[in-house]
User: Fold MFS transporter from Streptomyces termitum.
Amino acid sequence: MAQTTEARPSTPQPSRTPRFHRAWSVAAVTFVTVIGAAGFASLPGLLIEPLHEEFAWSRGTIGFAVSVNLALYGLTAPFAAALMDRFGIRRVVAAALSVIALGSLLTVWMTAAWQLVLFWGILVGLGSGSMALAFAATVTNRWFAARRGLVTGILTAAGASGQLVFLPLLSWLVEDHGWRPAAVTVALTALAVVPFVWLLLRDHPADVGLAPYGGEYAPKPAPVTGAARRAVTVLFKAARTGPFWLLAGAFAICGASTNGLIKTHFVPAAHDHGMPVTAAAGLLAVIGVFDVAGTIASGWLTDRFSPRRLLAVYYALRGVSLLFLPMLLAPSVQPPMLFFVVFYGLDWVATVPPTIALCREHYGDDSAIVFGWVLASHQVGAAAVAFAGGVARDVFGSYDVVWYAAGALCAAAALMSLVIRRPGTPEGRPLTA
Assistant:
């Protein structure tokens, strides 16, 4: 498909390279934006028990709404990346935050399960999908030619930072004041971030007459039309290459073993063993602390070591930790559980920087959209386990079988990562080859 790439006449001329590059300011705004948006991602695991008690909905029903949210989060991401190319980052992200606020606020008045699916599953899912990691990948690709792994790690860690900020607050609200004030807090937080995005974020370095950090100046390309068509076209091209399926499969397991499992079901699972909700949510927040360190470190390592080997190590270690988790759940927090929190937290989204690096390595200029599709598989995996975990709890009375299955899947993801070929080999040709 032909794309228009001529420069806009109004593009400012390049200026002298500043001592402090504007790219770092844009990265900071992106970081704060993702933190502010992370509130909505922190809430589902806290809602399962309150909604079950108030409305008598089964955990499988509530898990289904969460699974719709997670699936749409992933399926929207590649189209959001293309929409950012067409309409600009600011417009897409500001609109997404507004939709998130609307969906979260409407849940306050819901009375039926289908409304939970509509408001939280569909509206918040669509909005959060446009705020997905493709946002961080797009900002990194446009504004940075150097230090991309480090910046990717920092921006990815923003979600964990948001979890750290919001989980204790939201769990306290749910425990002491009910789930509705927590939903309102999420809505207001999403709205509060919109002015920062609109006033401070810029779509491209050429908008302010700069070259990307560590790169050479290039005029801003004209908007790319046919955003949806381009997203689908890129998918069909990428689907003809082996690395895409290996990356997508491994990342689906990544989503199943993080967002779908721990973020959704850890708090109710710990509560099943007698642990207070606030204590369990506090452990998730601590996971977020070490997630920040682990993800930034992973970005640093991705700039220096093979991303394939890094992914294999990350998935293998995560699988081992999940196999031990059923033995660590107890009414109170014991030292072995703290060890799990630290160990698992360092590995939570450490997989993102090497996965983005491999997408960039294989798919070049289309890497952000390709990563959007890989992220879609991540969220489909998360959605499957969010639903299956709730059903398993209803059927077996515990989550043990889910922890063991997730651990085994992580071993498979480690093997898939190791067999990804390098670009130029028969099964690892670049997308444009």
In short: Residues 1-15, 426-433 have pLDDT under 50 and may be disordered. The chain has 17 helices and no strands.
